[in-house]
Amino acid sequence: MKNLKSIFSYCILSLVVVFSISSCKKHDSGGDGPPVITRIRTVYQSTQTSQTVTAFDSTTSDGKIGTLYAVIGNNLSTTKAIYINGVSIYFNIAYSSNTTLQFSVPATVPFSNDTTSNVLTVVTAHGKVSTPFIIEQPAPGITTVSQLAGNAGDVITITGTTFNGLTGVSFGTVPATVLTKSPTVITVKVPSGLTAAHLLVTTSATKGGGVGTGPVVTSGTSLLSNNVSSAKQTNSIFGFNTAIFEDGYENGWSDYGWGAGAKDDKTNIRRGTTSRTYSYTGGYDGYVIQPGSGNSVDANTALKFSIFGGKGTTGKNIHLVLNYNFNTAVQITLTEGKWTDYQIPIANWVDAGNPLPSSISALVFQEFSGNSSTFSMDDVGLVNIK
Predict the structure, then answer these.
(1) Residue from 108, 154, 162 nearest 137 by CA
(2) Partners of residue 310 on adjacent β-strands
(3) Number of domains in the chain
(4) pTM given for the model
(5) Residues 245 and 320 reside in one and the same domain
(6) Which of 115, 144, 146, 174 has its CA 20 to 30 A from that of 81?
């Protein structure tokens, strides 16, 4: 009898525990009512610059592509979908609870404008709720330009990203005439009175937009003393502060070298009517461009040129040496049948043992793959990249 009482008591206690746990789970999970959004907040502070924790208001009604956000509210545990401007977006259920959802804004969500809903909607098993949420348009980005120098009236093509809401294109402070435009391609006329300047594209949007510059062009690989190498790139400058070669050598500049010779080329050109073609007879041949006027340089000066690889040159290297100082060089890699634009800051030749020069006395283009080869150059000059 005593054992039966013990067993009965144990069973009653077990049932109480089971009901208690079930009740707690139901209370913790929630989500039985319609969803509620109290706010949207950022997950990380984008301006955080140190490990020091600082208070900041993370509540926002604006979103940026590729940024992580959290929806704060109630009855969110049965969420089935999140929409922004009508586009379904992924959310990680592992980071979800009855009061929180985390999501990242994908590139498929359209930027907010007069034709978009400009809301975020959460759909659960018990209803849906919406809140204002504007997707900022990123600043425009320039990826390529059909030519990086030109005469007044030349038509150039600019390709890039997020040209939506274009309000203007300028070369530095000089505005250009826009001929055609789309979200990824713009054609403009080169304005008069231009020497050298950054190319700027300006857009306007419901939220975001701004000014973009570019394109970023290769600066080669710096081969410094003590076997140190580095690669540094810059936004290209349109035009030249000092032109060296445009359809011919200018301002007293000239070339000479050892190899199969150099000649003007009227067929294979980057721009204009003439390029300069050089032929190496074997490994370590070289050609030298020597200065005329306008050869002073400083930390803000860069050498800009376009180079074309002849037959069989893909992957072949040229070492560009400044002022016959063979302790440092910038390595240029050729591609057969393709023009490649370079803009190399003079500072890319500088290290602790090789100080910044005040002028250019020679630009040595030395073959460094042990092969005979041919290459062409066009649009050579000095620019101020500040």
Answers:
(1) 162
(2) none
(3) 4
(4) 0.82
(5) yes
(6) 115
